[in-house]
Every structure is written in C-alpha cells, then in structure tokens.
Amino acid sequence: MNKKSFTPYFFVGPHLILFAIFILLPTIYGIYASFTQWNLMNDPVWVGFDNYKTILFNSDSTFYTQFKNGLKNTLLFVVLTVPILIVIPLMIAVALEHKKVKMKGFMQSILYIPGLISISAAALIWSLIFNKQLGITGNIFGSTVAWAANQPYAWITIIVLTIWGGVGGNMIIYRASINGVSKDLYEAAEIDGAGPIRKFSSITLPSIRFPLIYTFVMTTAGAFNVFGQPLMMTDGGPRQSTHVLMMYIRQLAFGHGESIAGMASAMAVLLGLVILVISALQYYVMNRNAS
Amino acid sequence: MSRDIFIKIILFVFFSILCALILIPFYAVTIASFKPGEDLIRYGLNLSFDLSVMNFDNFNYLFTGNHAYFTWFFNSLLLTIVQVVLTLLVSATVAYGFSAYEFKGKNFLFMCVLLIMMVPFEILLLPLYTLTHNIGLMNSYSAIVLPGIASAATIFFFRQYLRGVPKEIVAAGRVDGASEYGIYMRLILPVMKPSFAAMAILNGMNSWNNFLWPFMVLSDSGKYTLPIGLKTLLTPYGNNYDLLIVGSFFSIIPIFILFVAFQKYFIDGMTAGAVKG
C-alpha cells in the first residue's frame, strides 16, 4: 500500500518541477522584485512600498503619469473591444443556426481563419491596408488620413485588427454550446407561440450561461494584456494616446538606458491585481444574476 | 412566404458582407505576393487582379534566393514539433495523475496550476529572463521549450476529457494485474487520442506563432524563428517587400493546411474548456 501512495506523485511530479522552476518561482520573484530597486543584472535592493507609492501617488513622477496613461488606454481598449467581441460572435452564432443558412461549416471556417495567423503577420497586413500611401483605404476609398497618426483613427485600426482576429474564437464556442441545447426546448416554445426573440432570451441565453461567463472573463483578461496590436499598428501614438500599460512595462524593463525592472514589476503586479479583481467580479455578478 | 424570402435575403447579405470583410485582407496579401515589390510601393496594396504584372518571381526568390527564410522556417517547424510532443506528454501524464488519484494537497496543487493561468505573463517575464540568463540558457531552444511545457490550459483540457472516461477501464486494468504505469500507457493513452489531436493543434498553433518570448531569448539570427525573422525584414531603411509579403503569405500556409485537414480537432480544442464546463 505504501508503494501505491507515492504513485500519484510520479504522475504529477515532472510537471510540478517544471512548473515550480519556470512559472511559480519567477512569479514569486516578480512580486518580490516589485518591492525593490532592480536593474535586472545586480541584486535587487529592498525599498518596501516605495515603487507602489511613486506609481500611485507621486503626481510629479513620470512613472505616475505613465501608469495613469497606460491604465487609461488599456481600460479604453477593454471597454471598446470586449462588448464587441461578445455581442458580434453571439449574433453570428445565432444567425448561423437559422434553418435557412446554407454551408454553416464553411462559413464558420472562414470566420475562424484570421484566428490562425500570428499577430505579426496580421498586423503587417492591416498596417499595409491602413497605410496612407500604400493602403486600400487610400486607394479605394480615397481616404487621405494617416490612420496610425491621428485619433480616433489610430484606435480604429487597433480595434479593427483585434476584432478581425478575435471574432472566430468566441463564435465557435457559442456555436458549440448552442448546438448542445436540447431541440425539445425550442419545439416546446414554438408550440407555446414564442417568437425568435423570446426563444433567444428565455432558452438560448440561460442555456449557454457557463460559456458566456467563460468567454467574458477570458476575453476581458486577454484585453487587459493587450500589447501586440498597438505596438505594431501605432507604436503607442499619436502622442502616446494608444500607449497601453504593457508597453510601458516592457519599456521600463528592456528599453533604452538602465533597466528599471523593480518599477516595471510593480506595474505588472498592479495590472495583475486589476485583472484578478475584475475577473472575480465578473464571475460573481454573472453567476449570481443567472441563478 | 414573402417573410421567409425577406429573412433569406437579410441572412444572405449579412453573411456575404461578413465573409468579404474577413477575406479581403487575405485576398490583398495573396495578390500582392504575386506582384513585384516596386509595384506595391508605386501603387500600394490594392485589389486589382492584373495578370500582366503578376508572376512567380517572389516565389522563385523565396525558394531559391539568398536569404535565411527557410532556416527560420525549419527552426520554427522543429521548435513547434518538439514543444508539442513534450507538452502533450507531460500534460497528459499530470492530468491523469490529478484525475485518477486522491492524494494529499491535490486540490491545492490543482488550484495553483489554474490560478497561474490568470497571472499576466509580464510578472514572470523579467525574473524568467534573469533565470534563463543565470542558468546559461540564453540563445538556446531549451529556454523556449521548457517554460512552455508547464501549460495550464492543456492540463485543464485533458482533465476535463478524462472525466468522461469510464472509471471501469482503470478498475479492469487493476483486476488484470497491470501496473499503474501499464494502465496509463496501455489503457488510458489510447482512449485520450482525440483530445491529443485537439491539443496538438492548439499548442502547435501557439508555438508556431509565438513571438515575444523567443524574441527576447534568441540573439543568433541563425536560430531565429519565422515570426522573428519576418520582423527583421521590416527595417528603418526601407522594407524588403518582395520577401516580406510572400514570406508572410507562406508562413500562413502550414497552419491553414492543418486547419482545413483537421478542422474538427481545432474546434474541439477551442471549445473543450468552455462548453463542457
């Protein structure tokens, strides 16, 4: 019996070792580093809550302005993209279920294709499309705007790229879950004379509650981590109005001059806290309202 | 009946516009990959299907030209295969350990694994970078592969899948006197095959497209992966559009072929965690 009690650890052991070395310890060290002055090379020097105080309260410091601006832009990105990335895929999934739609599978494949390609390839294609001299917007629609250098166009390019790449993923999840809803429910509702809107709100929505919460939480967490799209489309411009928090964090740690990794870690920890709190809140609110 | 036709038209228009919006960028880049780079610079990216300027020169240059594209391509391929094989083996084993046994600290450990999924990569990025530096793994593929093996999402999917596997299989194996490893290797792994396909594709896609971490670790251009290599073609001194466009186009092809061939598994992988909850 004694031999058997060790067996589970042989199964989970190899992974846990890798997990501890490459994920858990760096995470703990990252949190520790946020309380230090650190340039990535020398040993960190403990400074207590100084980094956090500077970032949150010292309005003279550039870190304060960077954090504030970065968080503001990140929040703006979240607010602008997350609702669209939930509502449009849901609409498409419901529309695809309509009896009259032919080639459902084919349509679904097409919508998912942008999700397959890397952010660098996608950003390359879209920045060419929006390019003032080279782009389709200029060539075909006669737009003379330098999209990446003017607001609100800079945000539009980022959002278009994000939605283009992100619609398929959630749509596939919604479609699979709508498919799992019992057909009997819809038939019973039809006999009772329920229209399409009533069927959607009373049967479809409650039945796919879990996938909705899941996609909502995951999409929001993903949006808070936004980095690639603004980096490649606008490089944070114009006048840092699309400079998201993740870009400041990377800049502080790996930018020109000496690394300010302690400050960067503190910003990363704050961002992580925001994501955790918002995810927990979303989960709590949606779960409670639904039941 | 006229209402039916009306709905039909609405749906048709809706989906036509949707497909057009999705596909136009692909169409544009496909067309551009057949046109000379000067054409792109002179007339811009456009949708005109003009056979008189279209040719295979870019593809010819891609396959025979003096550049590192296929070094990057095969680096990416190698890295993706190694990453997928190792991640799947380790993740399946740990998922089985979590689902088949009761042991001390099990729930706590599993919670840890899941909680880390929520931590933004940037928190561990800086320490991971110093760690990699200190243990001398900079500029090596191990530095890219090893942290990725601990994939929480993959473990989660496998564990969900194993919930649906009847416990009788394990019990029957024990009655037959098979060892615990024998049960896992000979009875459980074969049953898990469909979930392997889904996770292979999901992990393969992420690995093939992975940019940030390899970009920080690799410094030797001979070791670059495709996404990094493509980015180096974008220079401040003018871009090598001949190679850039056709190279981007060609980097999409392997994933696209996999998607068309194994679409069912892509969808299984995408929805496994969300739908079966």
Q: Could you explain the architecture of this structure?
A:
The complex is a heterodimer of chains A (291) and B (277). In chain A, helix 2 crosses helix 3 (62-96) and helix 12 packs antiparallel against helix 13 (261-290). Chain A is mainly alpha-helical and 291 residues long. A two-stranded antiparallel ribbon of chain A has the order 1-2. Chain A has one domain: MetI-like (MetI-like fold, Orthogonal Bundle), CATH 1.10.3720.10. The mean pLDDT of chain A is 85. Chain A is globular and about 70 Å long. Chain A has helices at 2-33, 50-57, 62-96, 104-112, 119-129, 136-139, 153-179, 183-191, 196-207, 209-224, 228-233, 245-254, 261-290; strands at residues 36-37, 45-46. Chain B is mainly α. Chain B has 2 domains: 2-55, no CATH class; 65-275, MetI-like fold, CATH 1.10.3720. In chain B, 77% of the residues lie in helices and 0% in strands. Chain B contains 15 helices and no strands. Chain B has helices at residues 2-33, 37-43, 57-64, 69-100, 106-118, 121-134, 141-149, 152-163, 167-175, 180-191, 193-209, 212-217, 226-232, 241-261, 263-275. The longest helix of chain B is centred in the first third of the chain and has 32 residues, at 2-33.
